[in-house]
Fold these 2 entries.
Entry 1:
Amino acid sequence: MTGAERVDVAVIGGGLAGACLATRLASRGIEVVVLERSPSWRWHAAGVFSSPAAMDALRRVGVSEEVLARVARPIPA
C-alpha cells in the first residue's frame, strides 16, 4: 500500500478482533486496510477463554470446525 491509496476503513491491530473485523468488512465490499505494528505474525496467548459468541463469530468469518477444534478446547467442569 502506498501513501496515495484510499480505503473506507483502517483497522488498527491485526489480532483476532482486528482480523475478524477486517474480514467481515471486506466481505461486504468495504475497502479496508489492517495496520499492524509487528512486522510478522507471532504467537501470543492474549486470551485463553473464547465465549460461545466468539466461537460463532469465528465460524461466520470462515474459520473451519477443523481449525477451531485444534485451537479451542473445552475446559472440563
Entry 2:
Amino acid sequence: MRRVVTVVLLGALLTACAGPPGPGPQGGAPLDPGPDVTYVGGSADGALSVAVTVHDGRATGFTADGATGVWFDGAVTGGLLDLRAADGSELRGGVHGRIVHGGVVPAGGGADRSFVAVRADDPAGLYRADPVSGTGVLTWIRFPDGTTRGAAEVDGTPVPAPDPAPDLVVDGVHFGPPVRVVTRP
C-alpha cells in the first residue's frame, strides 16, 4: 500500500510541477537547463539517492545507497542526459524545467532504478570533502530539508559516511571542509 501511495504522490508531483508547456520543441520536450544547475532526489522506495549537476553541455551525476557511491559523467543534449560511470553503469534521463527524471542501469545489466530529482537551491546540492592527509573521499547529497545521504571511501575501502562537518577524521584520515560540486572532481 505504501508503495502505491508513493507512486501516486510522485505522479502528482510531476504533474503539478510540470506547469504549462515551455518554449522547447513539442511543448513538453526536455530543455537544456541554464549553466551550473544541480538536481537532487532519489528512487521512489528511498533506497537510492541521486544528484545531477549540469554545466556547459555536460553533466556529472552521483548516486548513493547509504553504503557506496558511484560517479557518472557525460553529455546533455537537447535536455537529455547520457552519463556513464567508470564501472560501466549508466545514468540516463531528461531535464524538464525544475525536474529531472530518469534511471540508473547497473554495470553488466540488472534492474533499472528509476528516480526523480528536483532543482536544488542553495544550500541543497552535491558536496565533497577531500583528504588533507591520507587517501579517501567523502561525498554527500544534501536535500532541501537539510538531510544528507552520502558515501565514504578511505584507503580504497567503503566506510560509513559521517554527517558533513568542516573538520572530519574518518578511520585516521583527516578531511578538509565539504565543498559544493559542480563538475566531477
